[in-house]
Amino acid sequence: MKRVLSFVVILAMVFGFAAFQCSSTEITSAKLYIQQKNMQKAKESLEKEVSKNPKSDEGYYLLGYVLGEQGNIKDMISNFEKSLAISPKFAKDIENSRKYYWQESFNKGVGMFNKGTKAANPDSGKVFYDSYTLYRPIELRNEPEGENTRLTLNFASTYAQVLTKKLQLALITEITYQAGLLATPFHRVYFDDGINTTSLDEISTIISSKVRRREFLPDSRIKIPIALRFHYYLNSTFILRGFYRYYYDDFGIIGNTYEIEVPVRFSKAIAFYPFYRYHTQTAADYFAPFGEHQLTDKYYTSDYDLSNFESNYVGLGFKYAPLFGIFQNAMSKKRMFKFKSINLRYANYNRSDGLNSYLISMGFSLTVF
Questions:
Q1: Would the pTM count as exceeding 0.90?
Q2: Enclosing H/E stretch for 104
Q3: What would the pLDDT profile of 16-29 be if each residue is shown by its tens digit?
Q4: Whole-angstrom distance, CA of residue 164 vs CA of residue 154
Q5: With respect to CATH, is domain 132-368 assigned 3.90.550?
Q6: What fold characterizes domain 4-99?
Q7: CA gyration radius for the chain?
């Protein structure tokens, strides 16, 4: 999976490489080699640069970057520290690179652990480090920007067991830790300041003098969902699928989700599957509706996804999946294209807070071999 941070790091490097006229011959050559993905040649140029100019903060930074691309994390860190000892000019880029390569090393280590222990779920542990561009309400843009990155650590485990010829159960446990930007910076939160806006429309409220701030939430969060899934084979026509999930987080939300789906096969290729999901949750400790937050509140949000609500999601799906695919075609003498199946879904989603929507989706299964 591509990470947002990797894009940011590479983009920063590309823009940085535009200023060749201010760099030495070795740094200019190294930047060109990096753009061409020739890391060995870039390394050789940068080693010459830092040998000729031991005070080259950019040389040590770029050498650290190249070493990181080659997988030499120890020497990457050493060169980053040398760059910072000379000046803090590349401190932000170095911090982003450190977090990115730590994330990559962690995910690689988890993959090797799962492979060594023959774990059933290869994605049992993941780290994501994301960087964002913040957009705030126009009248609040003079405030300090605040945190614009988020670290996510996710650990998941699935235990599946076939109990009988007809019944299969799976227990799914997960824990997620997040730190950094957890609020939505473009969400306005209006406070109880004594100004009544019930007679104003949305635009008039925004330009009124009523006290508002951008959403502000704690900078860390722990989420723990535990789920149970079962498949019961009734006969060649009907299959019963059920799902229950308990959810807890330290924002104060406790949720329960129940779901049932009953696929009905009309032939080996055609199936309809009605489904229904019911969800209920308590409100986060930091939620209050429009105009009800107190000015003394430390954290505040009026995002109704964090409110107390019940929801219903009901619909019907259709799947067409012939045993040998819908059609296939030879792309060349060695490659074949197969259109395997099509899936259509229609659903209605409604919540007790007034949200109501209709959803239509379509999916295809294609392979090239």
A1: no
A2: helix 91-117
A3: 444 444 568 888 88
A4: 32
A5: no
A6: 1.25.40
A7: 27
